[in-house]
Protein: Cyclic-di-GMP phosphodiesterase, flagellum assembly factor TipF
Amino acid sequence: MAGTLVIPLIEARIRVQGLVYILMGLCGAGLGFAAYFLAGFTPIEAVLLAGAIFLGGALIEERAARRRAFRRLEKGVEEMARLLATDAKAGQVLSERVNALADLDLGPRLDVIEADMSVLGTVVRQVAEAVSELETAQQSGTIYQPTRVATPSSPETRRSPTIPLADVRRALDEGRLVHNVQPVLTLPQRKLHANDLIPRLDIDGRLADPPEYMPVPNAEGNVVLRRIDALCAEEAIRIVRRARLNGEAMRLIVDISPASLADRSTLDPILTLLGANRAVNPDIAFAIDYHDWAELDKAESDGLATIAQQGAALAIRDTTTLRLDFAALAEKGVRYITTPASKFLKQPSSLTDFHSSDINDYIKRFGINLIVTGLETEPEILALLDDGVRLAQGRPLGGVTALRDDLRDEGNDQLRRLAAR
Structure:
């Protein structure tokens, strides 16, 4: 179409240029006749004058035509350059988009989609099974009774300490609180992921575990609990800091009680230590029992939030159910949830509505790690591998042991006693 428009324009210009030459010829001839008849030129001189005028006009017209053609050519080149620049810019934008798509890491997104599809498939299967059971119950004339789930308001009965409170207080005064650790390993590699700080009490040359001496939360017991929490928090920060100085990262899970969270005289020194060691705070997780977590009041919740604001992680121990709002827990800073292996492997339906092989991936989506504790045998580890659990703790993976020499506090016992008070 463009070619059909250009050709008539060229023909019109040629016709106009021919008309100009004719007019120039007529002008030259008229001037030649005027010179012959009026100026007395000879015929040869008149013809030469007419020819000179015609040639001069033709040269002027030809030069003007070339200038016009040159200007048109320049304009065309500029227009083409502008179009090429636009095309180059569009090509650059397209190249950037292609590079962005090429650099896009779709692996994590695909993993999330696969986890969602797996969870959705499990839910659909469970709904189908529930509907089938309901229809069977209706046909047989029986009434469907849903299984009651244990709630935090009805926890298992806790064991009472066997060591008198006075002996515990005396041991703390004498600096006989020993800090041991129990590893949390990754499966199936069995590599160290974190250490659980276990405070044990030296009673008559024997190391007593926390269930044997940990006081009952009451007026007198809370005082001792706060002292233990302060000592454990201080020691945890020291251990993680020493590990960093040795060129290694060491995650540590340390217990803290609600009694310390609501007491500013105990919590403020802990916050001061955390504020002075912000570089190592992400390696520390303060753990609280699930029953205590469910019953935290506003002051205790605020205290836990201030710990999370310092960069430390939070952990919930011994959860009796995994029917939790994990998104809300992640916002509060929870990074670990532990559940006993006995329930997870033998009674998974009492913990969650998901299939046991899907719950770990579901929780992991929110940045929370599930730790199955209390393992007793190797077959239990194999069962956890089948269920996709990646963190575990128990006797086959490593018991409670002393700290390494390079991480152990070799300070003065008198200073420890003063700190314990």
About this structure: The CA atoms of residues 186 and 413 lie 36 Å apart. The chain is about 60% helix and 15% strand. Residues 43-103 form the longest helix (61 residues).
